[in-house]
UniProtKB/TrEMBL annotation:
Signal peptide: none annotated. It comes from Nocardioides phosphati. The keyword Methyltransferase applies. Residues 241-256 have a biased composition (Acidic residues). It comes from the Bacteria. The keyword Methyltransferase applies. GO terms for biological process: methylation. Residues 227-256 are annotated as: Disordered. This is SAM-dependent methyltransferase.
Length: 256
């Protein structure tokens, strides 16, 4: 299966029209990274997995990449315009929001993507049931709504499609945290059911179109520099020092 990509309108909605300094959380396979770069943004791609970060560095040799989690970022304070985060619910949301607000410049914002299967399609509804998914539309993350570090939350949704064959549909299933944490025997039983579902439709190597909906949320950082003290051990600018002249005002650190 080719990496999941989003409609250009969705990426533009998340980040904005102008070129920006973007910190990507959980970059994974680099599909969104590639889209952000193609739109001209200065991207720093991070992933909690050191192996994934190494693959990102190999795929994007001119890009800043880091092995880092949302709860502990390597960036200096007030150094990026946008933080983009997929699978936000898999992190400690309060700790992540504190870090996001710390690294965002005044006027910056956080952008969160929650991916959901489009269960209006009958076969996708069957697939979702195998994964234990309910056909519930994701709602605005309550932690952002209640946060004192971010303002009003905007929301939009964008439908898109991926072509999946038998193995790729299993790979999609394995991305679900519930499936990924199963014991091997239970996991294999579920994957057998996924394979059987695919085979029932008889599409073979031609594949099937998997519809998904990218539910997107964004919120501006509240400009209270005293509300988020610098994290202990984080890189900080030397107080009173004059910044060095540099064509790149991103002030991000290359941790490759």
């Amino acid at each position: 299966m080719s990496p999941t990509t989003y409609p250009e309108a969705a990426v533009t909605w998340l980040v904005g029209q102008d070129q920006k300094s973007v910190l990507e959380i959980g970059a994974g396979d680099g599909a969104l990274t590639e889209q952000l770069v193609a739109l001209g943004h200065d991207v720093h791609a991070t992933d909690a997995s050191a192996e994934a970060a190494e693959r990102l560095a190999a795929r994007f040799p001119d890009l800043r990449t880091s092995a880092a989690t949302a709860e502990r970022l390597p960036n200096i304070d007030a150094s990026v315009d946008v933080v983009v985060c997929r699978n936000f619910h898999t992190y400690d949301e309060e700790a992540a929001l504190a870090e996001f607000s710390r690294v965002l410049r005044p006027g910056g914002h956080v952008a969160v993507v929650v991916e959901a299967l489009d269960t209006k399609i009958p076969w996708v509804r069957k697939f979702a049931r195998l994964l234990g998914e309910e056909a519930i539309e994701p709602t605005t993350p309550e932690s952002i709504v209640q946060s004192t570090k971010f303002g009003f939350v905007d929301a939009d949704a964008f439908r898109h499609w991926s072509t999946v064959d038998r193995d790729a549909l299993c790979a999609v299933a394995l991305l679900d945290p519930r499936v990924a944490t199963m014991d091997p025997a239970a996991q294999e039983r579920l994957l057998d059911a996924v394979r059987a579902l695919y085979d029932d439709y008889g599409r073979g190597p031609d594949g099937m179109q998997l519809p998904q909906i990218a539910h997107c949320f964004r919120a501006g950082v509240i400009e209270h520099p005293w509300s988020v003290p610098p994290r202990e051990g984080a890189e900080t600018a030397t107080e009173g020092a004059e910044p060095e002249a540099d064509d790149d005002d991103g002030l991000l650190i290359d941790f490759r």
